[in-house]
């Protein structure tokens, strides 16, 4: 390995690999569908307001001399059987068509939401009855329901609106019910119940406000559906009756002549289609804007700044120099972090939530989510710049273990097959060889009966077993570095102990290094050789783990150690805590980030940031008060 | 109050199996156990949130504080509305600032929303809401489980202080023995739905009687060289 590093070091191109991710962001409202949808809906709204005012007279003017004409300069869409101008009629019918659609949607939504919310307030039997009724209605074809209602309530606009409303209602009811059920399971609803808040009030104060957003989104899309449905009803002759007319009625009248003058049917058809498309696009856009926070993960920009940062360390498995992870909007969760790990070394990276420790791990594995940007002076794994490593090389040299083993395991596939996949993809092994190796590795992580476990699905394994399987997956290659991000946080203490022991054994056996990331300073102190303490994106202290309890120098590290209750803590005295909170990644100031919570802080700490400097044997500290 | 022969079943699975537990007035009873041991089901049964068989005697006015302060506050209600939820309207204006004061939060927070608060502050709000129900028994289900260590200490101090100040009885549930030891007068160890050991805190920690308690104690991570 030493030789390889030396060779690579000579040709290291520090000047940078720029993998540019897509730079656009937040463009939900600027996308083509959004613009088209918005424009169409706006056009329809304007038409509904001004249409009858401008073209009202023209639409009613009967001209016996121009009956059933085709398109001409005077009548671009032709005329109907009384010689009325069809273009004017289409433009005028907009208001009536849209008003009916709106009415039908409101009826459907109101009935649906009431039906959907009722089970939350009714006694158990009543709730079951309503739920059953909704289930039956959902199973019924919507148009059939609409036609049946329309016929039963009498032909005409009223029947059609009621019909479409009834057809929309079951969908709304089901949506409301599903959303309400998920909110009803929330802890704050349980808390309200325990405080004796009546169910009506829980519905009004907790449930409805928290499900309003998706319901409103659905409303926009239903409007498009109602418009099409009403046009369909009128077209079938079940809807608007003469002398009234909507787009569907115009289509119905024009359809008779479609083989003679196609344009007489074309006008209303186009109007219906445009309005329907407009409302659906707008609904889609609203839904996408609402879920924008969970935008999909994409390729992240990874840039290496041009400046060189000393010579690379030939003995390090992992060498990180000046690593920064930032997000648009000025948030920089990791700030100029440097870290190096020797082969076989176990390094603990500890810090509270938001300190940037997990993003550091993600940056090492190239897993920082979009739209984060990663820059570094040097990021070398096994002597090679990670940007020059292929996915295959990275996949075998680096093993990652996460807090939730289910995030690393596909629930649909058997455990053994998933492990074998690694060997097939990364090492080009044959299926049979890969399977044998998978079973061998599972045995290696002390999974009892590895051959049997390999044939099981992840959900059939306990949490500890799953985490063992994920570690085994990392061992399918020959990892030089294992990055474990809170691997035992979700596990019980007794299982945690076993996994910690396993990790140590794996390190001793394979000679791989381990970067162990945890919020739990006790676990880190117990497992690791060396501890790196992070605060607000920076390393504030680095020291051998066995000296953590007695020799920690940085006020933050000392406070962390002091605030940890153990089985010998004096119960008579209050526990130490750290007042205040860690600054958010966008609000880290110029000075020491801990100054605001530090009992030793001076004016200098607030204005000038201390660098990490050597402080005693194998220890480095970033603190003005301790080091000077 | 006294819990007698309490059993909770979910379908064919018995989460809590014939548990009998005494909580003397003004005492804090700690319950430790691993996931699946039934400790949270016990809490939910005592709170009346899940159906159970058995008897719970002397249980009036029970309130509970939940594990995750990010899920236990309604994101669309202000802190004042949340804390005042269980209080009669006319007393709200005076009670909300008093409750916020009890949990050492400034009264100005009443107009804020949960998203503007840190995890520790949210958990204080959840405690204030529970105190608003004037509980005789406060159930704390893993209340420091989602908090950072630096915040955990201050919340535990608060809970202990409130107990002394208000004479609350408590059922304090956690997987962390060190945390339970710090708060509770007696500790009940749960394993597979049953209480395998229950005794004074120092005794359970110092001279554990049951093998499972010894296993749990041995698994607690400790800093090396701590003096």
TrEMBL record, chain A:
<dbReference type="Pfam" id="PF08352">
    <property type="entry name" value="oligo_HPY"/>
</dbReference>
<feature type="transmembrane region" description="Helical">
    <location>
        <begin position="34"/>
        <end position="55"/>
    </location>
</feature>
<dbReference type="InterPro" id="IPR017871">
    <property type="entry name" value="ABC_transporter-like_CS"/>
</dbReference>
<keyword id="KW-0547">Nucleotide-binding</keyword>
<dbReference type="InterPro" id="IPR027417">
    <property type="entry name" value="P-loop_NTPase"/>
</dbReference>
<comment type="similarity">
    <text>Belongs to the binding-protein-dependent transport system permease family.</text>
</comment>
<dbReference type="InterPro" id="IPR003593">
    <property type="entry name" value="AAA+_ATPase"/>
</dbReference>
<dbReference type="InterPro" id="IPR000515">
    <property type="entry name" value="MetI-like"/>
</dbReference>
<dbReference type="Pfam" id="PF00005">
    <property type="entry name" value="ABC_tran"/>
</dbReference>
<feature type="transmembrane region" description="Helical">
    <location>
        <begin position="130"/>
        <end position="155"/>
    </location>
</feature>
<keyword id="KW-1003">Cell membrane</keyword>
<comment type="similarity">
    <text>Belongs to the ABC transporter superfamily.</text>
</comment>
<keyword id="KW-0472">Membrane</keyword>
<dbReference type="Pfam" id="PF00528">
    <property type="entry name" value="BPD_transp_1"/>
</dbReference>
<feature type="domain" description="ABC transporter">
    <location>
        <begin position="318"/>
        <end position="561"/>
    </location>
</feature>
<dbReference type="GO" id="GO:0016887">
    <property type="term" value="F:ATP hydrolysis activity"/>
</dbReference>
<keyword id="KW-1133">Transmembrane helix</keyword>
<feature type="transmembrane region" description="Helical">
    <location>
        <begin position="96"/>
        <end position="118"/>
    </location>
</feature>
<keyword id="KW-0812">Transmembrane</keyword>
<feature type="domain" description="ABC transmembrane type-1">
    <location>
        <begin position="94"/>
        <end position="283"/>
    </location>
</feature>
<dbReference type="InterPro" id="IPR003439">
    <property type="entry name" value="ABC_transporter-like_ATP-bd"/>
</dbReference>
<dbReference type="GO" id="GO:0015833">
    <property type="term" value="P:peptide transport"/>
</dbReference>
From TrEMBL, chain B:
<protein>
    <submittedName>
        <fullName>Peptide/nickel transport system ATP-binding protein</fullName>
    </submittedName>
</protein>
<dbReference type="Pfam" id="PF08352">
    <property type="entry name" value="oligo_HPY"/>
</dbReference>
<keyword id="KW-0813">Transport</keyword>
<dbReference type="Pfam" id="PF00005">
    <property type="entry name" value="ABC_tran"/>
</dbReference>
<keyword id="KW-0067">ATP-binding</keyword>
<dbReference type="GO" id="GO:0015833">
    <property type="term" value="P:peptide transport"/>
</dbReference>
<dbReference type="InterPro" id="IPR003593">
    <property type="entry name" value="AAA+_ATPase"/>
</dbReference>
<dbReference type="InterPro" id="IPR003439">
    <property type="entry name" value="ABC_transporter-like_ATP-bd"/>
</dbReference>
<dbReference type="InterPro" id="IPR017871">
    <property type="entry name" value="ABC_transporter-like_CS"/>
</dbReference>
<dbReference type="InterPro" id="IPR013563">
    <property type="entry name" value="Oligopep_ABC_C"/>
</dbReference>
<dbReference type="GO" id="GO:0016887">
    <property type="term" value="F:ATP hydrolysis activity"/>
</dbReference>
<feature type="domain" description="ABC transporter">
    <location>
        <begin position="1"/>
        <end position="217"/>
    </location>
</feature>
<keyword id="KW-0547">Nucleotide-binding</keyword>
<comment type="similarity">
    <text>Belongs to the ABC transporter superfamily.</text>
</comment>
<dbReference type="GO" id="GO:0055085">
    <property type="term" value="P:transmembrane transport"/>
</dbReference>
<dbReference type="GO" id="GO:0005524">
    <property type="term" value="F:ATP binding"/>
</dbReference>
<dbReference type="InterPro" id="IPR027417">
    <property type="entry name" value="P-loop_NTPase"/>
</dbReference>
<dbReference type="InterPro" id="IPR050319">
    <property type="entry name" value="ABC_transp_ATP-bind"/>
</dbReference>
